Amino acid sequence: MDAVSQQVVEEVQATMAGTDGIYHKIEKVLTILESNGWAQKMTIQPKDILCHPSNRGGAMLSFYDAWSKGKAMLSVGLQKKLLHGSIAREVSKKITKRSAQIAKNQQLVKDSQGHLAPVSGQERFLASFCFFPISQKLLLFLMLLANTLFGSSAGFLSLSSSHTVAFLRAMEAGVPGPDGRQAEVSKADGNALTKAGYGW
Amino acid sequence: MVISSVVEEAIPQLVTWLQLGMNSSNSIGKPQTELELAATIATMFTQGLDLAQAMKRAKEDDIKCQASLEDVTTYVQKFAGGKSFPLIFFLATFAKHFGNAQMIGQELMATLANMDFKVPGQLFPFIRLAAWATMATGNHKAIDGFAKILSKSDLGRPKSNQTISKTTWRRWKWRMRTAAAP
């Protein structure tokens, strides 16, 4: 895949440095990237999303917070519509970078004392297909195929809602929270987010 | 929205900026703690931003510890262990083991960043680090989202005349012993 053109880089950097509110600046940056083919809206399952290693200055996320937020969400009912509009990026296509991104997530899980869902380590660069001109249905088929072949098709790194994703992954994997108990949610409610995924 | 991996290679600062900004715009965001903010500011410094730019970016986030921004920045500049900020990144990694999610509060952050031990030439970065590390274990002892393991008066103890004299005396003896060793 080609590199991002200098014109797009300059346009994004100028927007980031602008004086608009952060909300508007983010929207403008995403519009620039989307109109140039460097970003797109997708429906993704939580199990396909890892945490970006640079989040929170490398701290990534807190398992304690993921569970505390997750349980608060469960107590009022999971609302799929509130989860739309988050941002992720695909895992790197470069093997060394991709391995480092996965290793950081594995370490995060190790440090969580069993309160986060394991990373399979078999992630493939399925996300590479995202920016090929294929239909969403074909992409979903490829994700399903990768899941069948490799056990996981994780190919994305969250830049927002990372704690929510971590909780949903833990909920789906059935690992216990810091209080030693698994998340209590009906199968239908859980599947509506974990199996069906939601819009990014 | 999913962004291509190629974009981060072309604009390395973009992901930190988006991550920070989305805490303001996402209704399910989780505002950063002082320690996460310190690690983010340290990351911005390593990405080439200067102090004014880093503070401007950080102010755009919906950080609960907004009032501590200056103290956090002071800490990162003075006590993070130099150019690559190893002590802050160590602390961030250490805190992950405890699922650290609590803030330490404006008063304690200001004390950590500004307490003066009145020992010429000594900044005592490891005493500050030890205090912050202790606070980072505080999920089990928190009130209203603030870690309550150490108080401001606890932080005052290491810099009391009595403690400092013992510390410097021991340090002096250790130096003498090291110097006398063959």
Describe this protein with a few key phrases:
heterodimer; A: 200 residues; mainly alpha; 3-stranded mixed beta sheet; two-stranded antiparallel sheet; globular; B: 182 residues; 10 helices; 59% helix
Helix and strand layout, with pairings?
The complex is a heterodimer of chains A (200) and B (182).
Chain A: H1 6-17, H2 22-35, E1 39-40, E2 43-44, E3 49-51, H3 63-76, E4 88-90, H4 95-111, H5 136-150, E5 156-158, H6 162-173, H7 187-194, E6 198-199
Parallel strand pairs in A: 3-5
Antiparallel strand pairs in A: 2-6, 4-5
Helix pairs in contact in A: 1-2, 3-6, 6-7
Chain B: E1 2-3, H1 5-10, H2 14-25, H3 34-46, H4 51-59, H5 69-79, H6 86-96, H7 106-114, H8 125-135, E2 142-143, E3 146-147, H9 152-156, H10 161-180
Antiparallel strand pairs in B: 2-3
Instruction: Report strand order across the widest sheet of chain A.
Output: 3-5-4
Percentage of residues assigned to helices of chain A? 40-55%
Biggest interface, CB < 8 A: A-B, 66 and 52 residues
Instruction: Return the string of H and E elements of chain B.
Output: EHHHHHHHHEEHH
Mean pLDDT, all residues of chain B: 82
Number of domains of chain B: 1
Main beta sheet of chain A: 3 strands, mixed
Amino- and carboxy-terminal Cα gap of chain A: 22 Å
What's the tally of helices of chain A?
7
Q: Give the strand tally of chain B.
A: 3
Low-confidence segments of chain A: none
- Residue-averaged pLDDT of chain A: 83
Structural class of chain B: mainly alpha
The protein's oligomeric status is heterodimer
> Quick one: overall form of chain A?
globular
Instruction: Provide a count of the helices of chain B.
Output: 10
CA(first)-CA(last) distance of chain B: 65 Å
Structural class by secondary-structure content of chain A: mainly alpha
Order of helix and strand elements from N to C terminus of chain A? HHEEEHEHHEHHE
Major sheet: arrangement of strands of chain B: 2-3
